[in-house]
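Notebook entry, structure prediction.
Reason for the run: the old model in the group folder had no record of what sequence produced it. Starting over properly, with the input documented here first.
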Amino acid sequence: MRADPSTSDAKTTRSWVAIPFLGPDSQVVLVLYATCGTLNFFADEARIEQMVAMANGFCRLHDFLQDSPFANLRNFPLQKGEPNRSGGGLYDVQEPVEIELPKFQSLTSFNYEAAAATLSSPH
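New structure, fully documented this time:
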């Protein structure tokens, strides 16, 4: 682990995990990072499988919201940015896990906002 003195949790972090989420075209669109002060907390593959199952549930919920949006909740599109490909993260990869990654079926953005409610006035 490379400790970065500019981050407060780097001194107490003993385990970390990064779970990439894939878009419809199998490109990485989101990464879930988690840290823990317990050594080897994420070494238990069953724990990783549970986390990935929850991530898949998030993907299914997001896909559902794309297909069946709530009345006053909108997902506004964002402009495509350039990914950081230079690396230089806080932690190095220690042990890659071979597991099927969570994947969105439909994705335009994660920019959800409450839209203004329209009230109809009685006539």
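Summary: Residues 8-79+96-109 form one domain.
The old model has been moved to the deprecated folder.
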